[in-house]
Amino acid sequence: VQLQASGGGLVQPGGSLRLSCAASESVITFNLVGWYRQAPGKQREFVAAFISGGVIRYADSVKGRFTITKDHTETSVYLQMNSLQTEDTAVYYCHAQQYGKLYWGQGTQVTVSS
Questions:
Q1: Can you name the residues that pair with 68 across neighbouring β-strands?
Q2: Quick one: pLDDT at residue 39?
Q3: 102 vs 12, 27, 34, 49, 92, CA distance in Å?
Q4: HEC letters along 46-90
Q5: 47 pLDDT higher than 90
Q6: Closest of 34, 37, 56, 33 to residue 45, by C-alpha
Q7: What average pLDDT does the chain have?
Q8: Given CA atoms 74, 66, 61, 110 in this order, what sign does their dihedral have?
Q9: Tens digits of per-residue pLDDT, 25-35?
C-alpha cells in the first residue's frame, strides 16, 4: 500500500487548509485510514481517522474544527482543517492499517503563522 499526502502550506491563524491522501488501492479493506501529525520536538499524535465499520474518530484538540472525508471511489481521504491555530503547525502524515501492517505517507508540512 502506498499513500501520497498533499495540500500542506502556510496559512494565517483562523484560516483553512485541505489535505489529501491518495491511496494505491481502495481504503475499504483498511482497518484504519486517517491522519497523524508531528510538531517539532513532539511525538507523532493521532488527528482523525476512519475505523473499520465506518466509525470516525477525532482527537479532542481538533473536534469541531477538522473534518475527515473520503471520495466516492474510496481511494482518497481528505482532511478539511478550519479555524487553524498556531498549535496545529506540524508535519501531517497519512496513515493506514491493513491486515496487521502499518503504512505511512511521506508527510506534508502545515504551518500556521501570522
A1: 79
A2: 97
A3: 33, 13, 12, 14, 16
A4: EEEEEECCCEEEECCCCCCCEEEEECCCCCEEEEEECCCCHHHCE
A5: yes
A6: 37
A7: 95
A8: positive
A9: 988 889 999 99
Cell of 97: 492499517
Residue 98 in grid coordinates: 491493513
Cell 494505491 belongs to residue: 24
The residue assigned the cell 473499520 is 52
- Retrieve residue 33's grid coordinates: 485510514
C-alpha cell at 108: 506534508
The label of the residue with cell 510538531 reads 39
Q: What is the DSSP letter of 42?
A: S
Query: Which of these ranges, 24-28, 75-79, 88-92, has the smallest mean pLDDT?
Result: 24-28
Residue 13 scores a pLDDT above 90: yes
Say how far apart CA 96 and CA 27 lie, in whole Å. 8
